[in-house]
């Protein structure tokens, strides 16, 4: 059994999702559209969608990792070839960034084919939309998701996260109608530090949770 680190605030993603569902409970009457950021956000999105009697889908975005340091986000890409670079991207070679953009966009296209093979993405227009992720350090991927969805005219756009640093919450508040973040400490290292169990979520689990299994 994995020991619970002192910095962990949640047992696992389910624990965080239950807390977010409780905070979002007033939305239950509005049958919200829950859009999870794969892959870690999908188990949380499934639980929240069920608790709020809403619909679940994915919003596909990917972090752009820095050359030589892929865990450090220098931007993000979304569907429809959307690209958003962080100011720190200026410190890296343009050709390497272009290669990373191409790689991540190809992965997004593959994920869309796998995750929703027999239907189009659910239209967020006029809906109360909640974008869910387990957490965000820089806010790059969540910001890309929110920017993408704003163009699709939701009635209300809410970002829901387990953990993020205060400056990321402020950044997201400028893009969403509301940000619900359970933990936003000044001393923020990585999202995983807030979960006792932060195991990887596989593509097969995402497909199962979305209910899009196909032969």
TrEMBL record:
What is any Pfam family matched here?
Pribosyltran
Q: Any idea where the Phosphoribosyltransferase domain is?
A: 8-189
Q: Which domain of life is it from?
A: Bacteria
Alphabetically list the UniProt keywords. Answer: Glycosyltransferase, Transferase
Q: Which InterPro entries match?
A: PRTase-like, PRTase_dom
Coiled-coil segments: none
Gene Ontology molecular function: any one = glycosyltransferase activity
Q: Which CDD domains match?
A: PRTases_typeI
Question: In its UniProt entry, what is this protein called?
Answer: Phosphoribosyltransferase
